[in-house]
Amino acid sequence: MQHGQDLEGAQELPLHVDPGSGKEFMDTTGERSPSTLTGKVNQLELILRQLQTDLRKEKQDKAVLQAEVQHLRQDNMRLQEESQTATAQLRKFTEWFFNTIDKKS
Q1: Torsion sign (Cα): 58, 61, 67, 72
Q2: What's phi and psi for 10, nearest 5 deg?
Q3: Which residue of 20, 39, 78, 97 shows the fewest CB atoms closer than 10 Å?
Q4: Of the candidates 5, 66, 10, which has an alpha carbon nearest to the alpha carbon of residue 40?
């Protein structure tokens, strides 16, 4: 959220290059304003740092999520194997049970 606020602030400092010198800048009132340029650069540096921080956090979050996905895949495979084993055991028990009842009848 912070970098969004910084972006809004950056829009408040529009600059125009003075075509005569190429080095001096004028603000929207037409006055030359090197301090405005410095302020704009400082704002952009702050935005850049915030974006870099956000990117680092996103990469960390991505790594955590990827590890969680891998863990869930392993759990899924284990549960599928357990389900197949339980199904086979239930099938054998059912056959035994009905065979036992048939023999008693």
Answers
A1: negative
A2: -65, -30
A3: 20
A4: 10
Torsion of CA 32, 37, 39, 45, to 10 degrees: 180
Each of the 105 residues of the chain gets a pLDDT tens digit; together they read 555 554 444 444 454 544 444 445 555 555 556 679 999 999 999 999 999 999 999 999 999 999 999 999 999 999 999 999 999 999 999 999 999 988 876
Q: Tokens 């969680």 — which residue?
A: 68
Please give the model's pTM, rounded to 2 decimal places. Answer: 0.53
Residues 6+ positions from 34 with CB-CB distance below 8 Å? 24, 25
What token pair was written down for 98? 């009905």
- Which residues make beta-bridge pairs with 17? 25
Task: Give the helix, strand, coil percentages of the chain, each rounded to 5.
Answer: 75, 5, 20
Question: For 48, phi and psi rounded to 5 degrees?
Answer: -60, -45
| Residue 43 · residue 13 · CB < 8 Å | yes
